[in-house]
What we know:
Layout: H1 2-30, H2 32-35, H3 41-48, E1 50-55, E2 58-59, E3 63-65, E4 71-72, H4 74-86, E5 89-94, H5 100-106, E6 111-112, H6 120-123, E7 127-128, E8 133-142, E9 158-161, H7 165-172, H8 174-180, E10 184-187, H9 190-199, E11 204-208, H10 209-217, E12 223-235, E13 238-239, H11 244-259, H12 262-271
Amino acid sequence: MKRNLVLILLLCFSLTLVLGGCGSANNTDKDPQQTAQTDTSWQDIQDKGYFVMGLDDAFPPMGYRDENNEIVGFDIDLAKEAAKRLGVDVKFQTIVWESKVEELDSGNIDVIWNGFSVTPEREKQVLFTKPYIKNRQVIVVTADSPIKTKADLEGKKIGIQAGSSAQDAVLADKATYEVIKDNILEFDDNVMAMRDLKGGGLDAVVVDIIVGKYYVSKHPGEYKFLEEDFGAEDFAVGLRLTDKAFLAEMNKALDAMKADGTASQISDKWFKEDIINK
């Protein structure tokens, strides 16, 4: 009898161990900590000690090469200050602007930061920081041009930077686009388009107002802006869709720069006024 009782107790103990082990295995399988993917984007930046900023180096005053072939500009100074506050360095990588998202997704660059406009289409491709500047897409013509309105662009040659938000803005204005679509010429950068405008190869250029005003100020009496334009937008920094941790840290840095006036000081340096979004 005792022997049978001992056997029964041993059997129950064994079953308890087996069931307990199965229960533990099931709990492990359901543990969200085990299955959740961790965003290491900010840690990755810290580990390598820098982030790579992709830019078009012919986009004054946001980012361009000076007479010494050094990359300078408003966004360059802003990025350097942000990097300092993040405790890392920033490296500047010239890219073909039309391929900016591919450069970002491939890991060749970590941010797109060079007068990068927020558009609905781009919001599907990248994460944007909070905007830091307001922008408009304006129409520039030569000082003696008879063109006065968008309607006057019919039959005229119009220059636009390939892959730019100027291109998106023109496409969004369906009525105007239908009239001018066969006469739009794409350029690698806005400086080339503006030079072609001056040389008579174009009748108008659609460009960011910040870039347009800066370029026109360097060539007084040669250009003018039409009163009509292709609408307002914001400039922000673009990051990979997966890089939410890095985005949070970048937003903190930009917010701090706005709050203590550093961003405004950089704006005064390049634009002679404070145009920072507060």
